[in-house]
Hints:
The structure holds two protein chains of two kinds. Chain A is mainly alpha-helical. Chain A contains eleven helices and seven strands. Chain A has helices at residues 2-10, 26-40, 58-69, 74-85, 94-98, 121-131, 143-154, 167-181, 191-197, 231-241, 252-263, and strands at 110-112, 117-119, 202-203, 206-207, 220-222, 227-229, 274-276. The longest helix of chain A has 15 residues, at 26-40. The two termini of chain A are 31 Å apart. Classes of the chains: A mainly alpha, B mainly alpha.
Amino acid sequence: MRKILTIAATTIALSLTPLIGTHASPAEDLEAFKGYFKKKFSDVAFDDYKNGVYAIDSASREQWEEMEEFPPYELAIDDGAALWGKKFANGKSFADCFGDVAGIRGKYPYFDEAKDDIATLEGTINKCLTDNGEKPFKWKKGNLAKLSAYIAYQGRGGKVDVKVEGAKAEAWYNEGKTFFYAKRGQLNMACADCHVYYAGQNIRADKLSPAMGHTTHFPVYRSKWGNLGTLHRRYGGCNKQVRAKPFKAQSKQYKALEYFEAYMSNGLELNGPGSRK
Amino acid sequence: MRKKIRLMVTSASAIAIVAVMGITTNIAIADDKAASSSLEEGKKLAFDRKKGNCLACHMIQGGDMAGTIGPPLIAMKSRFKRDALIAQISEPRDKNPNTIMPPFGTHSVMSPKEIELVTDYILTL
């Protein structure tokens, strides 16, 4: 069974790019992406895609808005603020790594030319800890998600503005794009199957969210989790749902996917953290 | 005496006929029972989230909270021959390489026997 899953997970069908051409530039991809959703949900304003599935799910929107009045992530933001203010053993703190807290969220993810790597907010938080001789936080939830939530909260109102410039950055972008459109897992589904082609349809009783806007509101408090989780935690969950072996948080695959998805959300307002079912 | 024997033979035949008929009827009832229990089994597999999970995407009469990704499963007998439906469930990419429908047979989501059970149930819809 494990073998089947692994084989299935690694079976990547590259034939799947009807929406976005393989050789199109990132800018052309973005235009096509925006155009696709504009046509698909003609009555949804572009700005509203920051609200994820609630942009297109009027039935649960009111309930969600009520939940956001007294958000379940409020305490996590307070905990994150405390972590932000806490001094490391060497007397420094996160502010020494990041600078002004309000300007952080909008900078990530970005392509780090020198390292040929994608810098994510969560990856940089842990790098700040280890650079200062501290133990890194555990990935996916807990302190890492809490600090990420505080930084997201302080960065609310900014706009997603991810840049893909140069051949190396484009290689990362293309890796994320390939991941996004590739079929995987025993159930043989691509991210795009549910979140582009069938966005707005119901899977059992739940509506499938549009991919445009996926990254604006993370980390999120999910009722299903009962706590806060990062974007890569969600990616892992999605991969498990199609019965593929999930990749590790901050793996090359998920960093590339985050880079691609965030680029596809360019121009939308940053409104994390969020709450979800 | 002759008459008596004939009567006995006739009665014996009559009894034999009744007996045979009785057995046939029993067999028929047993067949019906087997058929309806395998249809029940097929329905269970179709609704099971770990097996067919057809309801995730398809509306099925008698199923709650059906998805809307695939077409409703109605009038199935007029749309599919048994073999064609088995093929569609086992390897839907034969008909549409980009389909979102999982290849239940090729990826061993269900065994061939389970796919037949689901098929026979779906054909009753």
